[in-house]
Write a structure and sequence with these properties.
By secondary structure, this protein is α/β, with parallel strands linked by helices. It has a single domain, classed as Alkaline Phosphatase, subunit A. It contains 15 helices and 19 strands. The protein has an eight-stranded mixed β-sheet with strand order 5-4-7-1-9-13-2-14, with helices on both faces. It has a four-stranded antiparallel β-sheet with strand order 16-17-18-19, covered by helices on one side. Strands 12-3-15 form a three-stranded mixed β-sheet. Helix 8 runs parallel beside helix 11. It is globular, with a radius of gyration of 22 Å. The N and C termini lie far apart (46 Å).
Length: 464
């Protein structure tokens, strides 16, 4: 009887230890942050010390790419583990839950595993006053507050786009911003995490998404932000597919050039405002990390940070995302997993964000039966030089795909036309090599890799 009692106590103690050992997750997603920050470009004047502080705790991926350069398809794909070519969710207006009625989001996987799942801000796309938010994915959620707008546009250009296409110093008080409210909610939860279960906490930071508003201190003492390098007639070697896809967004760049002629300095102010918004977003990351460090779960929390896509501020004569070029798709991506990632490690392998869902599933020992379109990146977290045969693929619109390898960016449009850039010699993607006869062997390999990467099981088999 005594032996049985001792065995039962030992079993109960082991079970309690296993429960306690389940890692918490702090899940940070930033909107529209491109690769011009100092995390990915040490020479950049856009300094992100807090994001770099997180990188020093774990692994940063220097060649990470979004799944789609638009908010809704990017977030849906990342949060469900299914590419647009599997789900059919290609556009910001696509009703993703109707397309995937039974698919568990990553948050629902954690709910099913016994986690308390909480969040705030922009996690799913905020279109239609948050209509695409998924209430079932959270036990508690603070919705994204409406944008605090000035009485009239600050850029003095009512003819340039909508109220959302604006930039300047706003508001005076940082506490009046969407993101301060979001981080305050998350800080409260970090200070008082659940006592009886682990926590998955999602923080959706809206900036640097437009309008490019940031409080005064982020504009003060802003260093000189150089305008992007440009090539006159850069679009002359673009194929038909590129011109068709980009036609809808050409007004952003053409309008900016006209505005800068009418009000000199407008373009530089636009660039500076984007940089200030990046600094503001970085400060919110810092607030979250400070709160985590002071929390009771500091030593047992996995931190993930990613951006839903990049953003052009004039590169390749383009403003906005909505493209398949490097600047629209290259994003910051960091995973700090205690006991798994080596502090300050860096992975140079090209990856896309389909890895995020299965990676968290593996790190937290969740349901391994769920099928995803991407592999787990845990092998890379343990060894950044591990064999990695998987392509990094981005999709924008049905049938338009880009693949990124260490040396190449290859784009294939729905009409079969192509772009090919050698990043060893042409990081600005100014010279399209797709029609050069010497590139035929390279093109053949990259075409095959895109086809392989897009091959997925029927969506009916992947909706769980």
């Amino acid at each position: 009887m005594i032996l049985r009692t001792l065995l039962l106590l030992a079993f109960a103690g082991t079970a309690a230890l296993a429960k306690e050992a389940k890692p918490n997750v702090l899940f940070i997603v930033i909107d529209d942050m491109n690769d011009s920050i100092s995390l990915l470009d040490p020479k950049s004047p856009i300094k992100t010390p807090n994001i770099e502080r997180l990188a020093k705790r774990g692994m940063s991926f220097s060649r990470a790419y979004c799944i789609s350069a638009a908010c809704n398809p990017s977030r849906v794909a990342t949060l469900t583990g299914l590419r647009p070519s599997t789900s059919g969710v290609y556009q910001n207006a696509s009703d993703w839950r109707k397309a995937l009625p039974k698919r568990r989001t990553i948050m629902q996987q954690f709910q099913a595993a016994g986690y308390a799942v909480r969040g705030a801000g922009k996690i799913f796309h905020h279109k239609l006053a948050g209509a695409f938010h998924d209430k079932a994915s959270f036990d508690d959620f603070l919705p994204m507050a409406p944008q605090n707008m000035p009485p009239k546009k600050l850029n003095k250009a009512p003819e340039y786009g909508s109220r959302n296409t604006d930039w300047g110093v706003w508001p005076d008080n940082e506490k009046d911003t969407i993101d301060f409210r979001t981080t305050e909610y998350c800080i409260r939860n970090l200070k008082n995490p659940p006592k009886d279960k682990p926590m998955f906490l999602a923080a959706g930071i809206f900036k640097p998404h437009s309008p490019f508003y940031a409080p005064p201190k982020y504009h003060e003492n802003l260093p000189t932000i150089p305008k992007p390098k440009r090539l006159e007639n850069d679009w002359d070697d673009l194929p038909s597919g590129a011109n068709a896809l980009m036609k809808r967004t050409k007004w952003f760049w053409n309008g900016m050039r006209k505005l800068d002629q009418k009000i000199p300095g407008s373009y530089q102010n636009f660039i500076d405002a984007y940089a200030a918004c990046c600094l503001f977003a970085d400060a919110q990351v810092g607030r979250l990390l400070d709160a985590l460090d002071q929390s009771p779960i500091a030593k047992n929390t996995i931190v993930v940070l990613w951006s839903d896509h990049g953003f052009h501020i004039g590169e390749k004569d383009h403003i906005e995302k909505f493209a398949l070029w490097e600047k629209a798709n290259h994003v910051p991506f960091i995973i700090a997993a205690p006991g798994v990632t080596k502090p300050g490690s860096r992975c140079e392998q090209p990856v896309d964000l389909t890895v995020l869902y299965p990676t968290l599933m593996e790190l937290c020992r969740l349901d391994a039966k769920t099928k995803c379109d991407g592999p787990s990146a845990v092998p890379l977290l343990r060894d950044p030089d591990a064999l990695w045969p998987y392509p990094a693929i981005s999709t924008y619109g049905k049938g338009n795909h880009a693949i990124r390898t260490k040396h190449w960016r290859y784009i294939r449009y729905a009409d079969g036309s192509e772009e090919l850039y050698n990043h060893d010699y042409d990081p600005n993607e100014w010279t399209n090599l797709a029609k050069q006869p010497a590139m035929v062997p390279t093109l053949s390999k990259l075409r095959a890799r895109i086809a392989l990467g897009q091959a997925a099981e029927p969506v009916s088999n992947l909706r769980r």
